[in-house]
Amino acid sequence: MTNTYEVRSHVERLRNRVFSIVTDEVVMPGGDVAARDYMVHVGAVGVVALDADGRVALVRQYRPAVQQVLWELPAGLIDVPGEPLVDAAARELAEEADLVAARWDLLTEVHTTPGCSNEKIRLFLAREIASVPAEDRHERTHEEADLELHWIDLDEAVRMALSGEITNAACLVGVLGAAHARDRGWSTLRPASDAV
Fold first, then answer.
1. Active site residue 144
2. Full-prediction pTM beyond 0.85?
3. What does DSSP assign to residue 165?
4. Distance between CA 86 and CA 165 in Å, rounded?
5. Are residues 58 and 152 in contact, defined by beta-carbon separation less than 8 angstroms?
6. Which of 40, 48, 88, 160 has the largest count of CB atoms under 10 Å?
7. Which residues of 31-46 are buried (b: 16+ CB within 10 A; e: fewer)?
8. Are the beta carbons of 71 and 62 closer than 8 angstroms?
């Protein structure tokens, strides 16, 4: 694509700790100017945690925006300044699933809703899984207080993704990506440090 899209103005409409809503005036290739609203997001990480039996750790979490309990990966915001992304993923795995992993790889990166947001989630594959000792577990609150951890065979999770049972975008990509990587002897994985 050789066309350029010049941003003529940028106005922030709302800001909170997770995102801001902005309006850009964009000069289109033909010269017309169009206003485009979108969300600027802090970014996120997600974890496809696989155990030695080939099962993936999925959580059930209520999401107010869709008013449903969804199948999801352990995931969360990049909201600790300077924290390496793989460390953020490890923190979320421990907080949401009470799990730790000895082996980490970068599985893929996803723009979740590029039509209205710049949100990008980095998905990590975590293996060599162990439980967080009970005395060291994170105390979950609000929607996270009701999180349910389920161990699902990876092939069953793929079926759930393709049948519409899993609708969370990061979970879909993570499950399908992990199955793809597994079927290729993990050759498609990248070092966890490649995540930016």
1. yes
2. yes
3. S
4. 28
5. yes
6. 48
7. eeeeeeebeebebbbb
8. no
Pair 78, 103: CB distance under 8 Å: no
Q: Concatenated DSSP letters for 66-120?
A: TTEEEEE-SEEE--STT--HHHHHHHHHHHHHSEEEEEEEEEEEEES-TTTB--E
Q: Render pLDDT for 138-196 as a digit per residue (tens, 0 to 9).
A: 887 777 778 899 999 999 999 999 999 999 999 999 999 999 999 999 999 999 999 88
**3 state SS of 141:** coil
Encoding tokens for residue 46? 């997600």
Cα(37)–Cα(80) distance, rounded to whole angstroms? 27
Give Cβ neighbours of residue 47 (< 8 Å, ≥ 6 apart).
57, 73, 74, 75, 89, 90, 92, 93, 97, 101, 123, 124, 125, 126
Task: Give the closest residue to 76 by CA, choosing from 64, 55, 54, 59.
Answer: 59
The CA dihedral of 142, 78, 106, 99, to the nearest 10 degrees, is -30
User: 3 phi and psi, to 5 degrees?
Assistant: -70, 150
